[in-house]
Amino acid sequence: MSFQQKILIVEDEGKLAQLLKEYLENSSFGAEIISNGSEVENWLTDNHCDLIILDLMLPGKDGVDICKDVRRSSDVPIIMATAKVEEIDRLIGLELGADDYICKPYSPREVVARVKAVLRRVGRVPTETNSKIVLNEKKLEVTYKDSKRELTKVEFNLFSKMHNHPGNIFSRDHLMDSIYDSQHVVNDRTIDSHIKKLRKKLVEIGLESEVIQSVYGAGYRFDMMD
Ligand code: CA
Predict the structure, then answer these.
(1) Cα–ligand 1 centroid distance for 92 (angstroms)
(2) Which one, out of 5, 56, 77, 195, has a CA that is 20 to 30 A from the CA of 202?
(3) How far is the CA of 22 from the centre of ligand 1 (A)?
(4) Residue ranges per domain, the chain?
């Protein structure tokens, strides 16, 4: 018998929250709604949940502060919802530790799919996922099972950055800052073209090109899909 996973919906738009709750329940999840941001912390001390869908703009306390507070004591998966796609990049830059971001208006069906994807992802033991891939910084080499491939310095920096934080989304800006020592004049396309070459090399040693996923409007992330 499988136990029911509980999702906490922190959302002040009543109708939307209710609709989401119904969709989640139809997918065999348990769901609770909190509409005021200041109530989340108390609720979490008395209750358990397996994932939080967290709206950004809330009465009481906003999503950014809630996310920070929750992360101090818990690594429960968090999906942040925002009304502006431009916001996502800023939120990622804040490194709040949310597991995914979703833009409003969203379809409840899409949210349920994201919930399942995040739960699948965090349900895997990260060390197991990563133990198959070995990075050698001195040689700028990546080894997967018995195959190895040399990378350029930039490709290596890009890959190790994402590989060390599986599942985390990195914006192009963030990646650029982390791979270049000085202030090169580079644009989004530069990152995309490095990613393209990197993927090709990873495929050569037997990895799926999708271990580096493009997240629409947000950036890239490393993830092993089994
Ligand atoms: Ca709101």
Answers:
(1) 19
(2) 77
(3) 19
(4) 5-121, 133-222
Phi, then psi, of 152 in degrees rounded to 5:
-75, 165
CA distances from 65 to 153, 159, 222 (A): 37, 30, 26
Q: Measured at the alpha carbon of residue 65, what is the angle toward residues 88 and 116, in degrees to the nearest 5? A: 55
Q: Containing H/E element for 19?
A: helix 14-26
What CATH topology corresponds to 133-222? Arc Repressor Mutant, subunit A (1.10.10)
Return the half-sphere exposure (C-beta side, CA atoms, 13 A cut-off) of residue 158: 27
Distances (CA, A) of 48 to 12, 191, 202: 21, 40, 39
Q: How far is the CA of 71 from the centre of ligand 1 (A)?
A: 21
Other Cβ atoms within 10 Å of 63 Cβ, number = 24
pLDDT (tens place) for every residue of the chain, 226 residues total = 345 789 999 999 999 999 999 999 999 899 999 999 999 999 998 888 999 999 999 999 999 999 999 998 888 999 999 988 888 888 888 888 899 999 999 999 999 999 998 988 877 433 344 458 888 888 899 999 889 999 998 899 899 888 878 888 888 888 887 776 655 566 667 889 999 999 999 999 999 888 999 988 889 999 875 5
Supply the CATH classification number for the domain 5-121: 3.40.50.2300
Q: How many Å apart are CA 74 and CA 61, to the nearest integer?
A: 18
- Ligand 1: distance of its center to the CA of 32 in Å? 16
